[in-house]
Amino acid sequence: METLTITRQARLATAPVTVMLPVVNLERARQFYEQTLGLHPVGLKPDGKFEYACGPAGSTVLALFPKAGGTKADHTALSFQVRDITTAIHELQAHGVVFEDYDLPGLTTVDHVCVLGAEKAAWFRDSEGNYLCLHEDL
After folding, report:
1. Which domains does the chain have, with CATH numbers?
2. Is the pTM of this model over 0.85?
3. For the segment 45-88, what is each residue's pLDDT rounded down to a tens digit?
4. Residues near 82 by Cβ (< 8 Å), separated by ≥ 6?
5. Side-chain-facing half-sphere of 12: CA atoms under 13 Å
């Protein structure tokens, strides 16, 4: 029985991952993800979701799916790992991205960046209200 459990876990550990994000307006969201963030479109799927290839060799798929109510999440839905968070912030700001600032116990940003243990992080919202993050490992 234990061997079977390990085998199942191994299959998931090496399985490609698709991140699903709800969007109210697919065209508006596509414009944001393609023109503002510069993601590479894969295309519209028969079930109505629109996919993007992300990560090394397209190892992660981001799928936008239409949902009338949009997101209800008040947490980070997606985080992009970057080499230099300050440079990434400036590049995205040049494309109109507005970053969040926080002054909460345990979560304070300086120039949009918060140091969280072994990483730096900065948050912004997409055109549909999803919380997205940039993070840089220290």
Report:
1. 2-137 (3.10.180.10)
2. yes
3. 999 999 999 988 888 999 999 999 999 999 999 999 999 999 99
4. 88, 134, 135, 136
5. 5
